[in-house]
Amino acid sequence: MSDGRLPRRRRWIGWTVGLVLTLLLVAVGWVAIRGIGAVSDLQRVASGASQLKKAIAEGDLEGAAPVARSIASHAESAHALTSDPVWHAFGVLPWLGPNFRAVSEVAEIADDVAADALTPLLDVAADFDLASLGFAGGTIDLAPFAQIEKPLGTASAALTSAEQRARRIDAESTLPPLAEAVGELRSSVTEAATVVGSLHGASVLLPTMLGGEGPRDYVLAMQNNAELRSSGGIIGSIALLHVENGSISLQTQASSRDFPPLDEPLPVSESTTALFEDRPGRYLQNLTSIPDFSEAGPTIAARWIGRFGGTVDGVIAVDAVVAEHLLAATGDLAFGPFTATADTVTSILLSEIYATIPDPVVQDQVFAQAASGLFAAALTGGDPKKLIGALAESAGEGRIRIWSAHEDEQAVLAASALGGIIPEDGPAATFVGVLMNDTTGAKMDYYTRASIVTAVGTCDGAPTTRVEVTWTNTAPADAAASLPLYVTGGGAYGVPAGSVGTLIAVYGPDGATPSRIDRDGSEEGVQTAMLGDRSVVQHDVVLAPGESTTITVEFQGEGAGAEFTETLTTPLIEAAEMSHEELRCGS
After folding, report:
1. Which residues of the chain have pLDDT under 50?
2. Which of 101, 108, 299, 381 is the residue whose CA sits 20 to 30 A from 420?
3. Which residues contact 229 (CB under 8 A, 6 or more apart)?
């Protein structure tokens, strides 16, 4: 007879299942409780980061210190809550796993940034005004830079590492709210890494570049975006700056008319010649067609020395939109018959001046007045913090490029956005780009607009990167008659008055090759070239008023299809609309 008990083996199985279920319930409860705590901590980290940014910007270091301590405490707590073996075990589960891993990675990054970047930054800020870089009365005090370079380097390295790790988080496999949070983390860390990296670069470069070890002379090339070139626009005016012990003064001023075309062009690279023939080496105005400023800079210096003699320690190129940012810091500026505000200066410099002053020689005189007035205002007027902020905003938009004749300084510049070179592709990002160069021979690019869409993925089994450029001429329908001859060009270079002629060059990732090239859905003849290991496809486009065209180039092979693909482009008067979309093969 049975005593009603289950066989021993069945009882053992039942106990085992029960124990596993109990442990599973305990584990779920464990990670749920810890997850709620971690999310709460991370929300406080995000809130504290906003408060800290505001406090440092306002110079409120007394208020910043407790906020930083709170951030560090909550970041450390979030990291601890999401780094135990149970949490990591849930990270290997299908579907749910990526969410657990993402929270853990976000917490770890926040903890590392708080520990390795915040502390040195606050130490620096306690002794040095990072917002103004010690700028006052037209002079930058160079003495403190030696003390702040090392802690800024530590913070910059920590933030750069955090940026790379944030990019590697698999956000696409997470729930939408978490994916959005990861995106915000990436943006915040990238912004911080860029700002602190720039500050560190400044601490390395400024003591010598601003004449701390002897006087320096720099050529300042001012670009006019109404006639586009790769790095912004033609060189309309040019000057020599003298710096010594942190003090800056404006010396010789000249215009492009002082530099007649050369009978024997200066040597330029094969890639530049393939895209633009020998025009950059022959004409000063075309030197900024050169895509790489490490090539353009020394060539601009050579033209200056050939005309005025002397030595040049470096070249700085700025475009007209920089004036807009500077006037927001310095206030209104009077020059010639104009009084410009931050809202009107771009329109005056790139459009109204041609309608008001038809004589090109007088135009050059007024441009020189504007340049010297703006320079004087930047050195002696306005809030130093706002001035540094205006320059930082301009640099972030790619509107300032610098080359140094001193190798150690140039190595630092080349690794930053200020160097104006095409960055190397790497684990952190892959780069593609679009260059615009005017062929109208006039100032019609005041009316041009661009939108650029990139998409990455796999098509026909091959990694693919697609770049789509839409280019539009917004000039009035009667532009040929209503706009000044100096603006339309009057057809002098084969482009009908009122139309816009543009060379649009699209380059792809390192090692990839074009697999599809079309304009408005049809194939047409194009120029091809190489920028290092990058393939370049260049269309020659002419658009009548109101017309628009779309150029599509797909690159396949090595380097293509990278998830983190960034797009670089010529700085326009109105910044190009940039977006990413899902890759649809065959579309």
Report:
1. 1-2, 6, 9-31
2. 381
3. 223, 285, 286, 288, 289, 437, 438, 570
